[in-house]
Specification:
With about 220 residues, this protein is α+β, with helices and mostly antiparallel strands. The chain has one helix spanning about 10-45, and strands at about 65-70, 80, 90-95, 100-110, 125-135, 135-145, 155, 160-165, 175-180, 185, 190, 195, 205-210. β11 and β12 (about 195) form a beta hairpin. The protein is elongated and about 90 Å long. The protein starts with 10 loop residues before the first helix and ends in a 9-residue tail after the last strand.
């Protein structure tokens, strides 16, 4: 007597193939999601920068400040010092409208304060702020006296106060270290439509500029 004859695959084999197909589908969906995520981040970075915003000096309207650099400071970095009055605690203003992307501590703070101006230096930029102005343009403000007056994600207007001038981080005296960046590149700072004149750090030199960072109601 012949035994029972079966055709097709055993149930266990069919279940294994179903699981394999499901796994391949999940992996394909994960790969697609990863590609979309990379595209969302990478495509905007590959676009050419937009036109230069009309940046203003990051200090009060009508004030004259000294802009300078020195060997080893890095090309296009600008240090700003007031030409009159006390430096500590002076308002630091947004050069142009944008979105705050960083508001915190760069490196370490050190111990230089108005009460102890010769205290120990810290590292890096101390309290700092970074603002995205759109079109792949951004500005950076370093060595602030205390925690920034703005927070990450906050929209700021041109001329809005974002902090106070200090000497946190690797700083020898109260001043504002300032940068303008286009895409991944640091570039010469422009104020009120004109280049600042601070370019190479091959030698120490300074220029003076008057701030036109004025808003309605200011002289």
């Amino acid at each position: 007597m012949l035994g029972t004859v079966t055709t097709g695959d055993p149930p266990r084999s069919r279940h294994r193939r179903v699981r394999t197909r499901r796994l391949r589908l999940v992996l394909a969906l994960v790969a697609v999601a990863a590609l979309v995520a990379v595209a969302v981040v990478a495509v905007p970075l590959l676009r050419p920068p937009g036109p230069r915003p009309l940046f203003q000096m990051p200090v009060a309207c009508g004030e004259t400040w000294q802009l300078g650099t020195y060997p080893g400071h890095d090309d296009f970095d600008v240090d700003l010092f007031p030409t009159e009055g006390e430096a500590w605690g002076r308002p630091v203003l947004a050069s142009y409208a944008g979105t705050v992307t960083v508001a915190g501590i760069n490196g370490s703070l050190g111990g230089r304060t108005p009460e102890n101006p010769d205290g120990p230096r810290g590292r890096g930029g101390g309290y700092w702020v970074k603002i995205d102005h759109g079109g792949r343009w951004e500005t950076q403000y370093l060595h602030l006296l205390e925690p920034p007056l703005v927070r990450e994600g906050q929209e700021v207007a041109q001329g809005e106060q974002i902090g106070r001038l200090g000497s946190t981080g690797n700083s020898g005296a109260p001043h504002l270290h300032y940068e303008q960046r286009r895409g991944w590149e640091k570039v010469e700072t422009w104020f009120d439509g004109s280049p600042s004149g601070i370019t190479t750090d091959e030698r120490e030199y300074t220029v003076r500029r008057e701030s036109n960072n004025c808003v309605a109601g200011q002289p």
